[in-house]
């Protein structure tokens, strides 16, 4: 069974084509990595999976756990267990982290009593090295880069999604924070938990070992393979994939 | 739906009921000298007040509708078709058991008696033209605190009442202050003696029960030296097919070192014209705060004014206005600096939804030969839909060069990326809008008493997601 199956997807944003005839399958229980140069459409794919309204799907479909979700609004995808950790999470003034997570849990039928909710929230915040007052701060307002990323992970830990898309979660994180984030993602790994990690660097993959790695170029996957490919990429750059040494 | 546990002008559905009942006093339809004579006779008033009312009627008839309102007042507001005075009694009851059944039921359903027990130092509940119930804690009465309706204030405490009545809102201030001066009834008279600091709020609840009716309460609050008080008013009316008018005059007097906080939460149904004149004067080192939440109504025009008359006096107006479909909210503040070293602060947040229009109008005036006066104005507007509208009209006149005035304004459209972010976590678009709007007004909502702030958030939620209203 596939958690996610993307078939022949063609996307455009503001009339500009981004992906064309893009296909990808992620079996349930696996974590895949998508790499590629800037501007190849990695973040666009992430947003399209999560249903961003600016990304029009021109062709193809996105199947999640056997269900065609191509036309579902973002909240219904989230309610089915899809979670996107944003590369650039937006600021939402006046809305506290705790209220936001609570509202999201209620919306996803994961309602908890107040006391139990705060106990769990504080527990997860402790894992992430976030102090208690963090819960009453407005979403992403005045956060450092690292705080923004940890806030994304905090939401993920609370919402317990089935499928995560991590969009450049490793950018703007120091090594300790990176290890912490990886540790938390690893803690969720199971037969029913799957994910797609989008990254530029091998760094994160020292701590999260994916099942497969895909290389995206010109809107298509030009290579899929074992994680070892990543080390070669770091050494030789993307050019080697086109050279004779191609694995 | 079950009534809210507190006396809050909650969602319109919840307050949308009325009773057909006979009234003992009815001045009939339309406005002329006889209307005034009827009201004055019913209230057994002195000659001077009758003269005052008649003079006000002449002023009202002679004054044109203010230019800025002309475009917003439709034909449905016809002064000849309104009932100006409807009442069952001339003196409010001190026990809910003595209040007529329909009126008691009305206030029960709005949660007022319950709220009074839990949370208030005193309450007045006005039903159409007159207060049906009024009571203040005995401990406060013993300290000399007066909290009565305006007619009793006038009769029992003329030495205070007459000194301040119409002292800062003269008859001819504007057409609607003239109208109120001609036909006023109900409203509160409060006097807090020197040094008495009232911890819990005093509350008035204004309820309109009848269509084609005008409610014209008149409130006068005098807080003596070193005394402190918070007053809250809530207003609702059922939805009628025809226009209803609410036109109050409120005057606040803060003597030396006094503090007054005046909180309004109104949730008028969308047939109400709410044209209110609110003004206050702060003497030496006194502090006045108006905290105002305007939801509902067809048209609201209200800018609380503060005359900073004594040195070191401080004034603040915090206001939230929510203009939904077919609603116009014209709100703002006036700060008149008349003494040196005075400070004023205005924070105004408006939300326009659908084709709603929220307008900010502000006046900052610092008169000649003053120094060390400070004003800070922050004025933020949020637009929900692409055809929602917001206007800002600040007017600032400052003489001399030793004063500081700062005006910041922002207008923003609700941010699609924010909505997407929230939706990506499973939150519906309607609820995402509601969260963003609540976030936008959050810093002001914190200023309301906790019981109110919780209900305010819920009310905003209902305004943003009408389908949740069951």
Q: What attributes does this structure have?
A:
heterodimer; A: 247 residues; Rossmann fold; 31% helix; globular; B: 470 residues; alpha/beta; 2 domains; 13-stranded mixed β-sheet; 10-stranded mixed β-sheet; 13 helices; 25 strands; 35% strand; disordered N terminus
Describe this structure as you would to a colleague:
The complex is a heterodimer of chains A (247) and B (470). Chain A has 247 residues and is α/β, with parallel strands linked by helices. Chain A has helices at 42-49, 74-79, 97-107, 114-127, 145-159, 175-188, 228-236, and strands spanning 2-13, 16-17, 22-27, 31-36, 55-64, 67-68, 82-85, 92-96, 138-139, 163-167, 194-199, 212-217, 220-225. Chain A has a six-stranded mixed sheet with strand order 7-10-11-4-12-13, with helices on both faces. In chain A, strands 1, 2, 3, 5 and 6 form a five-stranded antiparallel sheet that branches. In chain A, helix 3 (97-107) runs parallel beside helix 5 (145-159) and helix 5 (145-159) runs parallel beside helix 6. The radius of gyration of chain A is 18 Å and the shape is globular. In chain B, strands 5, 6, 8, 9, 11, 12, 14, 15, 17, 18, 20, 22 and 24 form a 13-stranded mixed sheet that branches. Chain B has a ten-stranded mixed sheet with strand order 4-3-7-10-13-16-19-21-23-25. Chain B has a two-stranded antiparallel sheet with strand order 1-2. In chain B, helix 2 packs antiparallel against helix 3 (47-62). Chain B has two domains: 12-302, no CATH class; 419-470, no CATH class. Chain B is an alpha/beta fold and 470 residues long. The chains are: A alpha/beta (247), B alpha/beta (470).
């Amino acid at each position: 069974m596939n958690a996610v199956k993307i078939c022949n997807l063609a996307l455009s944003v503001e009339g500009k084509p981004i992906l064309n005839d893009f296909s990808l399958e992620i079996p349930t229980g696996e974590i895949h990595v998508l790499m590629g140069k800037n501007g190849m459409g990695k973040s666009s794919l992430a947003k399209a999976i999560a249903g961003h309204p600016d990304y029009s799907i021109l062709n193809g479909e996105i199947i999640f756990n056997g269900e065609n979700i191509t036309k579902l609004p973002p909240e219904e995808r989230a309610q089915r267990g899809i979670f996107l950790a944003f590369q650039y999470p937006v600021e939402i003034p006046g809305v506290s982290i705790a209220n936001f997570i609570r509202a999201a849990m209620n919306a996803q039928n994961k309602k908890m009593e107040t006391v139990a909710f705060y106990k769990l929230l504080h527990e997860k915040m402790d894992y992430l090295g976030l102090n208690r007052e963090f819960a009453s701060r407005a979403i992403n307002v005045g956060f450092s880069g690292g705080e923004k990323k940890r806030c994304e992970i905090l939401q993920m830990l609370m919402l317990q999604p089935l499928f995560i898309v991590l969009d450049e979660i490793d950018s703007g994180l120091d090594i300790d924070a990176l290890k912490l984030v990886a540790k938390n993602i690893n803690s969720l790994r199971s037969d029913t938990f799957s994910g797609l990690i989008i990254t530029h660097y091998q760094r994160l993959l020292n701590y999260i070992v994916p099942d497969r790695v895909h290389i995206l170029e010109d809107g298509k996957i030009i290579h899929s393979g074992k994680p070892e490919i990543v080390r070669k990429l770091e050494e030789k750059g993307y050019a080697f994939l086109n050279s004779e040494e191609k694995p | 739906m079950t009534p809210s546990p507190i006396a809050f002008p909650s969602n319109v559905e919840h307050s949308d009921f009325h009773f057909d009942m006979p009234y003992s006093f009815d001045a009939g339809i339309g406005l002329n000298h006889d209307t005034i004579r009827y009201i004055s006779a019913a209230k057994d008033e002195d000659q001077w007040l009758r003269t005052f009312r008649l003079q006000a009627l002449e002023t009202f008839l002679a004054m044109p509708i203010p230019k800025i309102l002309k475009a917003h007042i439709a034909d449905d507001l016809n002064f000849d078709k309104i009932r100006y005075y409807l009442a069952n009694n001339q003196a409010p009851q001190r026990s809910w058991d003595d209040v007529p059944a329909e009126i008691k039921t009305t206030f029960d359903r709005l949660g007022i008696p319950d709220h009074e027990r839990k949370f208030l130092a005193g309450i007045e509940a006005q039903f159409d033209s007159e207060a049906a119930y009024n009571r203040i804690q005995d401990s406060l009465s013993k300290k000399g605190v007066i909290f009565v309706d305006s007619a009793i204030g006038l009769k029992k405490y003329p030495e205070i009442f007459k000194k301040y009545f119409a002292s800062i809102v003269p008859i001819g201030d504007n057409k609607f202050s003239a109208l109120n001066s001609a036909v006023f009834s109900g409203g509160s008279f409060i006097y807090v003696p020197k040094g008495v600091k009232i911890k819990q709020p005093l509350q008035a609840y204004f309820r309109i029960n009848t269509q084609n009716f005008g409610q014209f309460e008149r409130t006068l609050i005098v807080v003596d030296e070193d005394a402190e008080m918070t007053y809250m008013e809530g207003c609702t009316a059922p939805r009628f097919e025809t226009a209803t008018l609410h036109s109050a005059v409120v005057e606040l007097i803060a003597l030396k070192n006094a503090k007054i906080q005046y909180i309004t939460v109104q949730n008028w149904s969308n047939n109400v014209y709410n044209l209110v004149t609110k003004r206050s004067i702060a003497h030496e080192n006194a502090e006045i705060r108006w905290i105002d939440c305007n939801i509902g109504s067809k048209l609201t025009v209200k800018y609380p004014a503060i005359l900073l008359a004594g040195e070191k006096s401080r004034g603040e107006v915090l206001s939230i206005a929510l203009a939904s479909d077919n609603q116009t909210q014209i709100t703002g503040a006036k700060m008149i600096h008349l003494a040196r070293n005075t400070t004023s602060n205005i924070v105004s947040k408006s939300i326009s939804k659908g084709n709603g229009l929220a307008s900010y109008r502000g006046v900052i005036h610092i008169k000649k030969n003053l120094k060390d006066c400070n004003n800070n104005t922050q004025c933020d507007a949020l637009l929900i839909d692409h055809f929602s509208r917001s206007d800002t009209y600040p007017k600032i006149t400052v003489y001399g060069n030793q004063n500081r005035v700062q005006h910041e304004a922002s207008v923003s459209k609700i941010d699609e990326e924010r909505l997407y972010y929230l939706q990506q976590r499973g939150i519906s678009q309607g609820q995402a809008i509601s969260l963003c709007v609540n976030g936008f007004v959050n810093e002001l909502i914190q200023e309301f008493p906790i019981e109110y702030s919780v209900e305010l958030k819920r009310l905003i939620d209902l305004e943003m997601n009408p389908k949740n209203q069951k």
